Amino acid sequence: MNHAVTLQAEQVRRRLATFGQSHLLTFFDELTAPQQASLLEQCASLPLEMLAREVKGWIAAAPAHDDAGAAIEPAHVVSARTVDDAAYRALGEQMLRAGRVACFTVAGGQGTRLGWNAPKGTFAATPVTGKSLFQLFAESIRAARTRWECAIPWYVMTSPQNHEATRAFFSEHEWFDLGASTVRLFEQGTLPSLRSDGKILLSERGSIALNPDGHGGAVRALHASGALVEMQREGVDTLSYFQIDNPLAKAIDPLFLGLHSAHPQSAGEVSSKIVAKRDAREKVGVFCRRSNRSIVMEYSDLPAHLAQAVDADGSLVHFAGSIAIHIFSRHFLERLASAGHELPLHRASKKVPCVDLATGALVEPTTPNAIKLESFIFDAVPLASRSLILETSREEEFAPIKNAHGEDSPSTSARAQSNRAARWLEQCGVSIARSADDGSYNATIELSPLTALDAEQLASCSRLPKRIDAGATLAL
Question: Which backbone phi and psi does 380 adopt, to 5 degrees?
Answer without folding.
Answer: -80, -20
